[in-house]
């Protein structure tokens, strides 16, 4: 059975359970949240070994073939362009259709984490390289360490030969273990979706987030069904780009209902390898880079959310200079959300409100009931970007073997 079908069945079962479970009961609500968190952690569990060993081997092989720089530049170019395009879609959307006001019913001080760019930069190179294995959420330091190891192996191939053999073997075994976890998570999607639908019921009970939800869903459809397939057709000449969208179904479902990029990355790695036929040396490097730096969904959802906040507090609308500022700041700070595999879009929204000032420092709180949906929409777009982007890089590098859709996992 296809993985996306397994995930969809788990989600539908969870949706049914959410109607019968007394989630209004605090004990039941806490239990559902706990199990959902357990499943998300379970989905992340096998990522670190695969990421570390495969990234090292990938960097080594790309350097050996003299394509490391080209792959890195191509990946970062696609990341920047995708973020800018998604942010532009968000801007155009709010200019065409002004979001409805949301009553100001929540007051108080900010409760979201700060991005803390300078503090996060210190974690990229801790006092000991082995500290990169401690933080299970921030995977960029691990990738940096693995990248240095791969480059070092390429510098002295004779000395590194035993190590490369070990790393290659461990990478393949870790990948097999990761595949097991990706399959088992389909059962856990029941608990994840129960918790997600309980949050949705709470948000729906307020009665005035409907317009906001529709706007986000329309943006998802425009990007996933129209924009990305069109760009893939124009850039790579792929005749049927919707095959790539089909391969993105399982990663998209995992991202939307978990809202967690680290849980979604193993699903992405499986599908770009086994469904899209992308060679390991590309997927093991490019896909993690997309997961770390590519947050176009966060940029888009923050733009839409911030305009909703401004319209809710004032009927004067938003000035063109503020639109340009919002466009630039959302793109810029979306690249610094790697330490937040979940909830990054809401953290970015809080940061944008704080930087905007003018009494809006805590204005993001009016969207707190919808924070989970903002993060879900952002994670879904980010997952699509990772799959489509990795495919573009691999296609341009000539490292993708086309497969029939019946062989997709």
Q: Features of this protein?
A:
mainly alpha, 16 helices, 74% helix, 409 residues
How is the topology of this model organized?
Blueprint: H1 3-20, H2 26-44, H3 47-64, H4 68-96, H5 117-124, H6 140-155, H7 157-206, H8 210-236, H9 242-247, H10 249-258, H11 261-274, H12 280-293, H13 296-313, H14 320-334, H15 344-356, H16 371-397
Helix pairs in contact: 1-7, 1-10, 2-7, 2-11, 3-6, 3-7, 3-12, 4-12, 4-13, 4-14, 4-16, 6-7, 8-13, 8-16, 10-11, 10-16, 11-12, 11-16, 12-16, 13-14, 13-15, 13-16
Summarize the structure in words.
- With 409 residues, the chain is mainly α.
- The protein contains 16 helices and no strands.
- The protein has helices spanning 3-20, 26-44, 47-64, 68-96, 117-124, 140-155, 157-206, 210-236, 242-247, 249-258, 261-274, 280-293, 296-313, 320-334, 344-356, 371-397.
- Helix 3 (47-64) packs parallel to helix 6 (140-155), helix 10 runs antiparallel to helix 16 (371-397) and helix 13 (296-313) packs antiparallel against helix 14 (320-334).
- The longest helix is centred in the middle third of the chain and has 50 residues, at 157-206.
- The mean pLDDT is 87.
